[in-house]
Specification:
binds NADPH dihydro-nicotinamide-adenine-dinucleotide phosphate; 53% helix; Rossmann fold; single chain; globular; Dehydroquinate synthase-like, alpha domain; binds 1,3-dihydroxyacetonephosphate; binds zinc ion; alpha/beta; oxidoreductase
Length: 352
């Protein structure tokens, strides 16, 4: 008997364009969501977008409550859950970068309430995904979370954000190349379930972004549009897989370790991009393919070196030699890269 079943949860409304922030209320009304919205945002995102979203809801007669979070942590999720219960919220709206969106989608999952994603930066591909990413002690969890019912991405707001946030989003997409390699390796060596559709979509998203690199330019609002669509597509790949595997391999483990070793030094996307240069070398050796990753990052203006990330060489070596410990996810790092090998890969690729 055929006994497999699968749930693929995707957003119903994806609204991308100039000045669409005020259409959040329409996107929500169209979903027949009831009750008071709870806005989950972060300090800058509140000023540049969440206040406008709150005013739009107020104009329709539903005064939202706003919670400001400053970090991705389980305690921040609990705080949001508590406020939502106290206020009797009907649904949650995450407004900001990857951190407030992750917290809002995880809180929505606990509360069993609808979630709407309002990205203010094209900095990460968690905008659509049904996963949350949270550090806890020495580990980094990829947690099941509520995928958004709707996404509202205002390209005007996103284009006004610092340019490095957009280059970080591009690098998060470019890292899909190595994430998919790791996933395929885990499939071959560890019988990890692999989805051809999710793997192909993830890699194709990276290819399209690299092919369109020339239209991704500072000061061009169209860039926000191009990158946002790629981020949505990458998130869809994660939803199809019901895992972050299509977009997170060893390069992400490296980045998560850097977050612990050098907190706040660089953006998530920039760290995974440099991680991808290193892990492409580990996968393919010195046949030049790692240069394709490095050159794609460089064309977009994303960092390719430790210096560019603002971390010292020792941090890169420490992150690379300990990255395999952070999560039970089989990758090219296997049981670990020793210090001499880490030096070799980081030097040959020019990362240090
Ligand atoms: N769940 C998933 O599938 C995924 C999750 N992630 C997670 O997302 C996080 C990384 O996302 P990232 O967006 O870099 O992190 P943040 O949410 O921390 O945002 C990065 C910075 O951008 C600022 N910012 C956001 N929007 C604007 C704007 N319009 N103008 C000016 N500044 C702005 C934020 O300021 P402020 O905080 O003051 O508002 C913050 O300083 C990580 O925690 C990562 O693990 C990444 C990819 C996938
Ligand atoms: O950042 C991600 C995909 O880009 C997902 O993060 P995780 O590594 O926590 O699964
Ligand atoms: Zn990522």
């Amino acid at each position: 008997m055929f006994d497999k079943s699968t749930w693929i949860r995707l957003p119903r409304n994806v609204v991308v364009g100039h000045d669409v922030l005020e259409e959040t209320t329409d996107a929500v009304a169209e979903l027949h969501l009831d009750g008071q919205p709870l806005l989950v945002t972060s300090p800058t995102a509140r000023a540049v977008a969440a206040e406008r979203v709150a005013e739009s809801f107020a104009a329709t007669g539903t005064e939202p409550v706003t919670v400001v979070v400053e970090e991705a942590s389980f305690s921040a999720v609990e705080r949001v859950v508590g406020t939502a219960r106290d206020e009797g919220a009907g649904f949650l709206v995450g407004v900001g970068g990857g951190k407030p969106i992750d917290i809002a989608k995880m809180a929505s999952d606990t509360l069993e309430l609808g979630f709407v994603s309002v990205p203010t930066a094209a900095s990460h591909d968690g905008i659509v995904s049904g996963r949350g990413s949270v550090p806890e002690g020495d580990t980094r969890h990829s947690v099941a979370a509520e995928p958004p019912l709707a996404v509202v991405a205002d390209t005007g707001v996103i284009a006004d954000a610092p340019w490095e946030l957009t280059t970080a989003g591009c690098a998060d997409i470019i890292s899909n190349y190595t994430a998919v390699r790791d996933w395929q390796l885990a499939h071959r060596l560890q019988n990890v379930e692999y989805s051809e559709y999710a793997g192909a979509l993830s890699r194709m998203t990276a290819e399209m972004l690299v092919d369109n690199a020339d239209s991704i330019k500072k000061g061009l609002e169209e860039s926000a549009w191009v990158v946002m669509k790629a981020l949505v597509s990458s998130g869809v790949a994660m939803s199809i897989a019901d895992s972050s595997r299509p977009a997170s391999g060893a390069e992400h483990l490296f980045s998560h370790q850097l977050d612990r070793i050098a907190p706040g030094a660089a953006l998530h996307g920039h760290q995974v991009g440099v991680g991808s240069v290193l892990t492409e070398y580990l996968h393919t050796g010195d046949d030049g393919r790692w240069r394709n990753i490095r050159d794609a990052l460089a064309r977009i203006g994303a960092p390719t070196t430790a210096d560019g990330l603002g971390v010292d060489d020792g941090a890169v070596i420490e992150a690379l030699t300990t990255a395999h410990e952070i999560r039970d996810r089989y990758t090219i790092l296997g049981n670990g890269v020793n210090e001499a090998a880490a030096h070799e890969v980081a030097t040959v690729t020019g990362v240090i």
